[in-house]
């Protein structure tokens, strides 16, 4: 379990994981060593599991992002396929009619069509183009 101070620290790190401890400390009314200790404990408890990079895919030349639901009977083969595709950002095994929810980023619609055509040999799909994304932080 984490307390309100840990939640505040996580919110600040979520906004910018490279934020210096000395910048976080006054925002949560703690000393820098106290913040550092809390961050280390959050890492030890595996609440913080890593630090990631956020990419603006549009600026990186990936103008089309989509969620693609795949229904497949050969999960192992589909998983292996998805892991090899550079356009796959995330691949989630899900419950329900579909087996996988895959997030992809590609240069254009033609590249999306090519990706889906390759994937269709593993089953059927339903594609949902992403128009925009609003950040929904874990801690509100």
What does this structure look like?
This protein has five helices and four strands. Helix 2 crosses helix 3 (32-44). The chain has a four-stranded antiparallel beta sheet with strand order 2-3-1-4. Helices cover 39% and strands 21% of the residues. It folds into two domains: 4-44, Arc Repressor Mutant, subunit A (Orthogonal Bundle), CATH 1.10.10.10; 64-129, Lrp/AsnC effector binding domain/regulation of amino acid metabolism (RAM) domain (Alpha-Beta Plaits), CATH 3.30.70.920. It is elongated and about 55 Å long. The chain starts with a helix and ends in an 11-residue tail after the last strand. By secondary structure, the chain is α+β, with helices and mostly antiparallel strands. Strand 2 and strand 3 form a beta hairpin.
Task: Give me a quick take on this structure.
The chain has helices at 4-15, 21-28, 32-44, 75-84, 109-119, and strands spanning 64-72, 88-93, 100-106, 123-129. It is α+β, with helices and mostly antiparallel strands.
Mean pLDDT: 93
Oligomer: single chain
* Main sheet attributes: strand count, strand direction, barrel closure: 4 strands, antiparallel
Order of helices and strands: HHHEHEEHE
Question: How are strands sequenced across the largest beta sheet?
Answer: 2-3-1-4
Q: What is the total tally of β strands? A: 4
CATH architectural type of the largest domain: 2-Layer Sandwich
Q: What number of structural domains do the residues give?
A: 2
Give the full name of the CATH homologous superfamily of the largest domain: Lrp/AsnC effector binding domain/regulation of amino acid metabolism (RAM) domain
Beta-strand residue percentage: 15-25%
Main CATH class of the largest domain: Alpha Beta
Number of helices: 5
User: CATH fold name of the largest domain, please?
Assistant: Alpha-Beta Plaits
| Rg | 19 Å
Helix-residue proportion: 25-40%
